Amino acid sequence: MESKNSVVVVLLAVLIGIASGVGLLIGINNSVSAALNPLYAKVAEIDRTVNNIESKMNATSGNSNIGASLASIQSQLAQLRANPAAAQPSAPAPQAEDMNKVYAIDPGISTIIGNKNAPVTIVEFSDFQCPFCSRFYPVVKDVLAAYPNQVRLIVKNYPLPFHPNARPAAKLALAANEQGKFQGMMESLMANGGDVSDDKIKEYAKNLGLDYNKLMADYKNKDAQWEKDIQDDMQLGQNVDVRGTPTFYLNGRKTNARDVASFKAEIDPILAGKK
């Protein structure tokens, strides 16, 4: 029996060394470790099994489950060596979007840009620090210019959590709206990556002809109001399945249009009563 225990101890030492080696290799590069978290879990599982064996050995040297436990460890390690990717769970496939679904999007307190009675409404969920919002907003402006009486734009705030300036920028635009300059402030912020530094705000105010003192008073003193307005927009965005910024809707339907021609291809049938 002593010789059997010696064999088990040797096997345990080898297996623990393998498990430690896997952990060492995983730790070589921090950027890789995040992708290999499931492998860490497998190694931890192996360690737990090894500890279980040691406990059983201490309890009784003749436990018949030891051989089965060792076989289980060997099987797991063999699977990891043969196919490390098997430890990585596959991501669920994104659910396909129904582009014909019509969402109810209440304008609420949002500023309407263009003819307020236009038959076609573009709703944009936007983040003023988002480079893609900045890139595609001029396209929407060109669409408004092409349909001055027939298309209007409503901008909803959807600041993304990884853009630190997005929320303050949205509040600044809402404060500027107190002086009728929401659109101008929004465009200034987009052109400057959502910069809300003191010098930039002074620059925006000067260029837009705003009363700087009133702007800053509204920006700071009405923070709770702006926070609620933003939260309302974000909740609405979740209700209508916003998945990122910018997200555009044409009369309640999501659209993938990102150039003037594509917008026209969807707007013209609406105006002709065919959609």
Report on the architecture of this protein:
The chain is α+β, with helices and mostly antiparallel strands and 275 residues long. It is built from eleven helices and five strands, in the order ααααββαβαααααββα. The chain has helices at 2-26, 30-33, 37-59, 65-82, 131-146, 166-177, 182-191, 198-208, 212-221, 223-239, 260-271, and strands at 112-114, 120-126, 151-157, 247-250, 253-255. Strands 1-3-2-4-5 form a five-stranded mixed β-sheet, sandwiched between helices. Helix 5 links the parallel strand 2 (120-126) and strand 3 (151-157). Helix 1 (2-26) runs parallel beside helix 4 (65-82), helix 6 runs antiparallel to helix 7 (182-191) and helix 6 (166-177) crosses helix 10. The chain is globular and about 75 Å long. Mean pLDDT is 81; it is low at 2-36.
Helix fraction, binned, reads 55-70%
Q: What are the low-pLDDT stretches, counting only 5+ consecutive residues below 50? A: 2-36
Distance between the termini: 84 Å
The class by helix and strand makeup works out as alpha+beta
Lateral strand order in the biggest sheet: 1-3-2-4-5
Number of helices, counting only DSSP H or I runs of 4 residues or more: 11
- Overall geometry comes to globular
- Portion in strands: 5-15%
Please trace the helix and strand order, writing H or E for each element.
HHHHEEHEHHHHHEEH
Rg value: 30 Å
Mean pLDDT: 81
- For the secondary structure, the number of strands is 5
Largest sheet: 5 strands, mixed
